[in-house]
Design brief:
Structural class: alpha+beta
Mean pLDDT: 97
CATH class of the largest domain: Alpha Beta
Shape: elongated
Number of domains: 2
Largest sheet: 7 strands, mixed
Oligomer: single chain
CATH superfamily of the largest domain: Formyl transferase, N-terminal domain
Order of helices and strands: EHEEEHEHEHEHEEHHEEEEEEHE
Radius of gyration: 22 Å
Number of helices: 8
Length: 311
Amino acid sequence: MRTVFFGTPEFAVPSLEAVAASHEVAALVCQPDRPQGRSKKPVFPAAKVWAREHGIPVQQPTKLNDGTFEAWLRGQAPELGVVAAYGRLLKQPILDVPAKGWLNVHPSLLPRWRGPSPIQTAILEGDVETGVTIMSMVLDMDAGDILQQESMSIGPDETTEALSERLARMGARLLIEGIDKVACGEARFTPQDPDAVTVCTLFEKEDGRIRWDRSAQRIHNRVRAAIPWPVAHCLYRGQVCRIHRSEVVQEATAAAPGTITRVEQDGVLVAAGEGQIAVRVFQAPGKRAMPMADFLRGHAMEAGERFEEIV
């Protein structure tokens, strides 16, 4: 089946690879190159890198709705449009182009967590299960009918980075199954339950800010959700530091939230609004992330010191 694939980040690559292996990908559409790092040098999106390495033409439109892009898309004559983490909403004239419609890979168990950050939100909210939904596309965000869906458990210490990799592989497999059903006329779609809809917002740098008055479990979830970006952060000795890995400690304390209650060989225990967390991987200002055991060998931390919230 002739497709045009819309996708931008690393999450999209397994699906792009799978579609290219079993169907025709006329072109990849991804977001424009973005400046990164101190040099602000434009960096290719992960999907673009893969497409160029495999001879697939790449389009990176800055405008989708002025008629020019729609005309280009019609010229590709796609039977099916495929989307996996493209990052922009498509309006009806574009949705009308492929004769057999669109399939979207969404990393949640819709209708739970419609929106742009379902993986981070599932971890942040303490969900123990998530999954992938293959759905049709309509104008309303993530509201299309469901073709197929599969669940997976979320590990208690699993990060956004690790969970994304697993969901991307699952999504690629389910997507091919869905495309094959569309190709042979066996696709059966089920409407989403409107009473079960939950919505997430874009995960931003602010969402990595640690609030020590929250429960230890909530802080731990934030640390997990913020890997690889923006990494959970707070103040230590007046400077911004980052916590890359934590652990919930089931030990009560009367210490004020943010107070270091004990320094151990491989971590420090910090009081939360309820319970404590152990900081296991730490990044001091201007330094690389390192196991707390390594950091403590060269830097003294003492019980009674405080981690502060960034205001």
